[in-house]
Amino acid sequence: MCRRVVAVIVAVALAACTGSSTARADSVTILLPSVRTTLTPGPPLPGTGTPAETLFPPGMTSDERVLVGIDATGKPTSIDVVQRLQLRKLGDYSFAIPGPIADVEAAAGSESEPGLRRDAILWAGFSSGNKTLAARATLRVAPASAVLPLRLTLSREDGALVVRGRNTSAARGPVLVGPVSSREAAKAFGDTLRWLPLRRAAPDLYATVPHPPLSRSEAIAAPLAVHGGIGSRHFDYLLADGRPMAFELRVPNAPPRARLRVLATPVAPLRSLAPPGGGTWAEALRRGRIRNTGLLERLSRARLAVAREFQYQTFLANPNPTGGSTAVYIYETTVKAATSPPSASKASGGHAWRAVLVAALAAVAATGLVVLWAYS
Amino acid sequence: VLALALALCGCGGTKKSSRTLVIAIDAPFSRSPYIGQTIARGVELAVSEINVAGIPASSGTYTLKVKRYDNALSPRKALGNVRRAIDDGAIAIVEDGTGVDASWRIARDAHVPICVTYDGGSGLVDLATRPNVFRIAPTNRGIAFRLAEYTIPKGLKLALMHDDTTYGQQGGDALRAAFSRNPHSVATTLTLPAGDTDLSPQVLRARRAGATALLVWGQAATIAEVVIAARSADWDVPVFAPPSAEDPVLRQELADRPQWLDGLTFATGRMTAELGPEFFYAFESKFEAAYGAQRVGVRTRAGQEVIAPLDFAMYSYDFANVLAQAIRTFGIANLPQALEQVTARGANGDERGFNQHNHDGVVDDDVFFARFHDMTFAPVKDDPLSSTLPTIKQTK
Fold this sequence. Notes:
The complex is a heterodimer.
Chain A: H1 2-26, E1 28-31, E2 61-70, E3 76-87, E4 90-98, E5 101-106, E6 115-117, E7 120-128, E8 131-139, H2 141-145, E9 150-157, E10 160-167, E11 171-177, H3 182-195, E12 206-209, E13 214-220, E14 224-230, E15 233-239, E16 246-252, E17 260-266, H4 270-273, H5 281-286, H6 295-312, E18 325-333, H7 342-375
Parallel strand pairs in A: 2-18
Antiparallel strand pairs in A: 1-12, 2-3, 3-8, 4-7, 5-8, 6-7, 9-10, 10-16, 11-13, 14-15, 14-17, 17-18
Helix pairs in contact in A: 3-6
Chain B: H1 2-10, E1 17-27, H2 33-53, E2 55-57, E3 60-70, H3 75-87, E4 90-95, H4 100-109, E5 114-116, E6 133-135, H5 140-151, E7 158-163, H6 166-179, E8 186-192, H7 200-208, E9 213-217, H8 220-232, E10 239-241, H9 248-253, H10 258-261, E11 265-269, H11 278-291, E12 295-299, E13 305-307, H12 311-330, H13 335-339, E14 343-345, E15 351-353, E16 367-373, E17 376-379
Parallel strand pairs in B: 1-3, 1-4, 4-5, 5-6, 7-8, 7-9, 9-10, 10-11
Antiparallel strand pairs in B: 2-3, 11-16, 12-13, 14-15, 16-17
């Protein structure tokens, strides 16, 4: 009896081992790149201050306007951030927002005053169910400009103002390389799109693949929707997400002191996430429109681009890692749009000659008057 | 031989040594012993804990020592005390607020921070003009605005009453500012003579002005006299008060008619963190083990002895810990600046500290309302913050 029981147990164990090894040989479940992946370098900005307590009611959201003052060549000369934190639940809050903070003051609509420590904005108090904490922080330009998502350069060429913009949000991230079935990929793509509104609170996704994929380091950028204006001329570009990373715009006859204003908004990589032929991924799968090559790479790249977009939605950190965060980067010329064109120099040269002539005539007139006085 | 001995003495130069730093307490020990003892004992308790390991420094270890100076509620005496404390080598001064106006300059010139742990007067702490003055205590501004926020929506017509002490006058100023946007909520404003044992005329004037509630900012004895005057005239008017209502004197003066105190509502700094009351109770246990319970001197109807929560002792205890953290992190070279950069875990579990824009360690949001019943008080339920707070045990 006892021998029979042992035999049965051994048989069951062997069967289980065989079964599992077969399953392992057939497929493996992998974790797809998380939309909460933080690539470096990139925001949120770090600080060097001493760490502080972090406490807040659930659901705190952040909205930021990053105000970048640029000079005549497009180089950042000042960076201010207006951050609005919205607390919609009852409870205590006490936290620090790190960053290269030079100074901070309450922004319009704030229901509390921000504190300042070395490289940190401090908030502490109580939310009775709805509270706005708004701060305008002045950042040190050198460390903050290093992680701006857009670099602008301005120049004058042949009488035209030339505005060049480049998406500088790229950082290297681990892209998965290997086979995946169309069904698995379509499901993951569809789920990624479906969970986009949850932002960083979106659940992690898994996929079953025939064998463990490899990892390849690639540059991942946050897509930027760029909208700008100079005088009456307006322009729009999408940088990254299958589009060029840079733009160049020539504005003929732009006045020398024309003000340039450019809004750069990180946006989801919707082109990379879109199914072939439009519609839904389920439809694309049903109609056989999905080509089974490089699907896992494309999926990884898209999910990392989503993560990178989320990263740029918090130039200054939101202490609530899964809370909604939005940011817009506003570049504005602070002095004049570009260096004076050659024709303008000629004009100013003319002014100089006129000034010399007036001075010479004044000197002659003065001498004449002295002579007249001497003989009178 | 002498040269050899001297040379050998010189060889010990690299050895790390211990140094004692003095914290001065300038408080009204003779004139208001409750306030003086509370402040001093809070600091002394913290120092006794800090000295167990000392404060590590590059040159050795610092230990702290507390020296008491009695200001007898006199700014002139407080000024002399601060001079003596600096001569005695004090690295920081903790005080009730009596002498700050007179002494902050001397302390500033000596790079010595002053921390106020009782008085909430708005002029005492000024970041721009008094960079060495700090405070861990509810501010008058915060108390007054919270009182306005709490009473105005109730549709009450308030008689704003303050006594003629410095505390009362500063409170009167804070109330004026807080109610300036809602003048229709104010029936009248009255100044009360502190120390007067019959305030019936003033209370009658408030009643005739159409007041439906009294807000009394003054010393505990003044609040008690207002309550006595109103209740003796059978006027069951709601009475509101600032943190001085916590002072045992109020309850002692109403001990014969405890029902008159029932319903009196006052605003004060919260004692417990969101984490719960455990931290505060742990602090109370340590304090009681060292100094015994703070007896109010009255009993409940059931005969239980009433004890006072140690909120003001907590403030001075917290300052000593923030100071120790500043020394630990930045040394003693410039303590006013170092204090702006650090925090320490407070007695109630909250992080306590200051910053470059704010030298007040109790934020205005952290003011709650408590109502007396049977000689003890409990947080009210009709205020969002207060309704979240537990009732601190106040009987033995």
